[in-house]
Design goal:
- The chain is an alpha+beta fold.
- It has three domains: 53 residues, Roll (Structural Genomics Hypothetical 15.5 Kd Protein In mrcA-pckA Intergenic Region, Chain A); 91 residues, Pseudouridine synthase I, catalytic domain, N-terminal subdomain (Alpha-Beta Plaits); 81 residues, Alpha-L RNA-binding motif (Alpha-Beta Plaits, 2-Layer Sandwich).
- Helix content is 22%, strand content 30%.
- It contains six helices and 17 strands.
- The strands form four sheets. Strands 7, 8, 9, 10, 13, 14, 15, 16 and 17 form a nine-stranded mixed sheet that branches. A four-stranded antiparallel sheet has the order 3-2-5-6.
- A hairpin with a 4-residue loop joins strand 13 and strand 14.
- Helix 1 packs across helix 2.
- The radius of gyration is 20 Å and the shape is elongated.
- The two termini are 26 Å apart.
- The model has no long low-confidence stretch (mean pLDDT 92).
- Keywords: Isomerase, RNA-binding.
- One of its GO terms (biological process) is enzyme-directed rRNA pseudouridine synthesis.
- GO terms for molecular function: RNA binding; rRNA pseudouridine synthase activity.
Length: 241
């Protein structure tokens, strides 16, 4: 037997946390009865419905997408803007993005229908590194980059230690390309960190997630993660606790 929200997450309904909200809202039935309790466990033979639609257990799916600019990291958008799942054609599993990249941010985004895996990848306690490349308005000094590495205050909280380096600079138009590696994932975190030391971000790209890179993918392209990659990511998260 498994917890209801875990079964729902594995079926690709949403992340486990969102599935808990759906249960509390009274939108889930088990064998015809509305369930509002988070601790309930279900059998494989139980009939589960969400919004009157039966769910079924899907095989777990893990994808790596090169997110283009001007896509929402979601499965739907109430403003009608394009979402990242629009780019994933030819699969039947109901996948969703792990975390998010901003509308105008490009780069590596993972998607899955495995709620446990998604939670492992998103939770900062697992310290999964994400590396970003930013085009900045201005040229940060080594001292200012060290401030990022030690942690800066954004939204009233201090960021964890990071890695930062200057890749290139253009003295004529006073811009720079910098790299920043963090393991958190706060809202607009990378942009806010650079702004905290006085440098607006003109462009932002997530270059890598743990050991994964974009390799030969072009914007809008995706591939399945290998079983080895999934196992390695899970082990990294487990070993960090």
């Amino acid at each position: 037997m498994e917890r209801l929200q875990k079964v729902m997450a594995h079926a690709g309904i949403a992340s486990r946390r969102k599935c808990e909200d759906i249960i509390l809202e009274g939108r889930v039935k088990v064998n015809g009865q509305v369930v509002r309790e988070l601790g309930i466990k279900v059998h494989a033979s139980d009939r589960i419905e969400v919004d009157e639609v039966p769910i079924y257990k899907e095989e777990p799916r893990y994808l790596l997408l090169y997110k283009p600019k001007n896509y929402i990291s979601a499965v739907a958008d109430d403003k009608g803007r394009p979402v990242v799942t629009d780019l994933i054609q030819g699969i039947q599993e109901r996948i969703y993005p792990i975390g998010r990249l901003d509308f105008d941010t490009t780069g590596l985004l993972l998607l899955t229908n495995d709620g446990d895996f998604a939670n492992k990848m998103m939770h900062p306690k697992h310290q999964i590194n994400k590396t970003y490349i930013a085009k900045l308005g201005g040229i940060p000094t080594p001292k200012e980059l060290r401030m990022l590495e030690k942690g800066v205050i954004i939204d009233g909280q201090k960021t964890s230690k990071a890695r930062a380096r200057l890749i290139s600079s253009n003295q004529d138009n006073r811009t720079a390309i910098a790299q920043l590696t963090i393991h958190e994932g706060w809202n607009h975190q990378v942009k806010k960190m650079f702004e905290a030391i006085g440098y607006p971000v003109f462009k932002l790209k997530r270059e890598s997630f743990a050991f994964l890179g974009l390799d030969d993918l072009k914007p809008g392209m995706w591939r399945d993660l290998t079983a080895f990659e999934v196992d390695k990511l899970s082990k990294m998260a487990d070993d960090s606790q």
